[in-house]
Amino acid sequence: MNRITAAAALLTLLAAAAPATAQTPVAPRQIPAQITVSGEGSVDRVPDQATVSFAIVTNDDVAARATSANNTAYNALVARLRGLGIDAAAIKTTSYDLSYNQRPPQPNPQFQQRYGYVVSRGVSVTTNRTDQAGAIVDAGVAAGVSNVNGVSFGLRDSRGAYRAALAAAFADAEAQAQALAAAAHLRIVRVFSIGDGSYAVPRPFGPMTAASARAGVPTEIQPTDQTTTATVSVTFQVAP
Question: What whole-number distance in Å separates Cα of residue 136 and Cα of residue 147?
């Protein structure tokens, strides 16, 4: 027991007498030189899809008559669209509302206002034949819709167009970075980070009333190329 105690004491003395190990200072981590640029790219493609939006608004002092009149106009619209070969799945009811608008004692003649029970229905019609847009407008007017809210053209593969625009945006960013690096006598080492891109959606044609669309000459609406634009932020690591 005494031998164990003496050995332990000796080890303690040796540990205390040993010189402390010197700690090597850690150099601060250096951030590599970087260039951050914003690239933009766009692609033009011929649209292969058209969407026409309608509004059917009816009113009556009796709710049942107001809804019945709205249903009649809607059924007439569907029948005319079927005559154009439009599939039932392409006709969507986007909104439906029934409300009561009380008639004031002295209505203002300057404003065209519907009173009683007012039924509003929104309908959208989509076709993969862009040359049918005008015929769909005429079908809605002939069926008695209240408004043609707009005509828009689009791409069935919009994501594919966006990917192509993103690739063009990255190529633009890389070209900018190469020019900046050359001006600073540097070289591009690698891509350090890539930020999310943004996407610009083409705007549809504006709305028009059914009265203004009603004419003896068939409506023709020619689509223009759809421009899909994307932007991306890219950081490149550079070195001498």
Answer: 13
pLDDT at 113: 82
| Cα 164 from Cα 199, distance rounded (Å) | 12
Taking domain 47-154, whether its CATH number is 3.30.70.2970 is answered by yes
Bridge partner list, 238: 188
**Which segments in the chain show pLDDT lower than 50?**
1-18, 20, 209-212
- What is the C-alpha to C-alpha distance for residues 74 and 212, in angstroms, rounded to an integer? 20
- How many CA atoms does the CB half-sphere of 14 hold within 13 Å? 6
* Domain range annotation of the chain: 47-154
pTM attached to this predicted model: 0.71
Contact 235, 174 (CB under 8 A): no
